[in-house]
Every structure is written in C-alpha cells, then in structure tokens.
Amino acid sequence: MFARSRQGFTLIELLVVIAIIAILIGLLLPAVQKVREAAARIKCGNNLKQIGIGLHMFAGDHGGAFPRSTHSGPVTQSWVFTLAPYLESVNTIRMCPVDPQFQDRLGNNGTSYAMNEYVCEPGTGESRFLDKMRATSRTFIVFTVSDDKGSAVTEDHTHSRGWFTPATADARWSRVVRDVQVSRFGGKRWAGPLDPARPPDSERGSGSANYLFADGHVEHIPASQIRQWVNDGFNFALPPLD
C-alpha cells in the first residue's frame, strides 16, 4: 500500500495568496477612483455645456436676457427650470453627479450649479444681457454650488458682489468658498454646512472644479488658481468691460 498524496493549499500558501490579492487591490483602488472621478468631472462638464446651450437659446428668445435667480424670480424652483424647454432632461442636467447633497437638492427643486449674481440680478457691475457682453469668453456665468450651502432652492446663485469687499485675502477667500465649491474634484468633501468633517476655509486650496463661461465653453480650473486671483484682489466674477 502506498500512501495517497493529498493536494491542496497549506495555511502559509493561503496567507501568501491573500496578501498578494490585498496588495493588488490596494494598487488598483486608487486607479479606479481616479477613473471614476474623471468620468464624474466629464459628466459635470457636459451638464454645464448643456446649460450653456440652454442659456443661449433662452437669451435668443428673451431679448438677450438671462433668466433670473430665486432672489427676484420664482422661489418655488431654481432658474435652471426656465431652461427646461431647451434641455433634454432638466432633472439630470441640473445635478452634479458627485454633489453630496444630490438627493436633497433634487427633491427641493434646487441645483448643483449657481448663476453668477452679476449676470442674473440687477445692480453694480451687472451684465444681464448676452448680446451686450463685451468679453463672453472671459465672463463666468455659472459656478458649482459650495457644499457650505444648504439644499434649499434659493441657493441657486452666488453673492459675487460681496466677495471682494473685505480688505484681507483670507476674508475674501472665505466669502468665495462659501458660495463656490472650488474643490469639487480632487479636494476635500463634506456633506453640508453642519458636517463635522467640514474643513476650515484655509484648507480648500486643493482640487479643482468646472466653470461655465458666457460664450458656452467650460473650463476646468484648479482651486489654486482661484485662490491666487483672490490673493491678487482680482474679482474674476465681475464681467470684464473689454
């Protein structure tokens, strides 16, 4: 009688295999996360491009004027709903795919995007008519709403006129990031104004976000560039005169 050999993994071999799998997963996860974030960034950019097309068509039908925000327009739904006839699906396009308040804003008739106060509300520096703008390729018209803001429908526009009122760069920066999510991609995230994970304003200089300009193009701008403009006292939200 010969002893029958038993085939199978030893405990050490099994642990080695598990360790190798864990290492591979550790190497793959960052790559997968980067791919997902890149896809979300592209989807967000496409949303803004569609909004830009809708704004141009709306302006063409309304004497060149942009829609008004909830500050002086309907308070039951965001300005983006006035573009519904020009959009394929307003409920899809008005939401950024990685907005932490996605469901709340969706249910409250809000949006992940905020119109620049200068182009949707009358006042100092206003530029509310597309056909009267002198530098459409350099005029910001839609920003990404800050996670500091709540999900209410009224959070659909910025307060750009007050951004550069303070004398210090830090105070100006705080006002900007309370309105705009400059670090939507690659930066720190939090669930809302009451989230304990909410970082201080000084730690929001990383990452990047998408921005819609009046000529319809979308730019992906690093938060560090926005911070530099704030430090220099350059009011990037103010429509240029030439």
Structure characterization notes:
- The protein has a four-stranded antiparallel sheet.
- The chain has six helices and four strands; from the N terminus they run αααβαβαββα.
- The longest helix is centred in the first third of the chain and has 51 residues, at 11-61.
- A hairpin with a 4-residue loop joins β3 (208-213) and β4.
- It has one domain.
- α5 (169-179) packs across α6.
- With 242 residues, the protein is α+β, with helices and mostly antiparallel strands.
Query: What is the distance, rounded to the nearest whole angstrom, between the alpha carbons of the first and last residues?
Result: 98 Å
Q: Please tell me the total number of domains.
A: 1
Within the largest sheet, what's the order of strands? 1-2-3-4
- Parts with pLDDT < 50 across at least 5 consecutive residues: none
What is the global morphology?
elongated
Helix amount: 25-40%
Strand content: 5-15%
Q: On the 0-100 scale, what is the average pLDDT?
A: 91
Radius of gyration: 23 Å
Main β-sheet description? 4 strands, antiparallel
Structural class: alpha+beta
Number of extended strands: 4
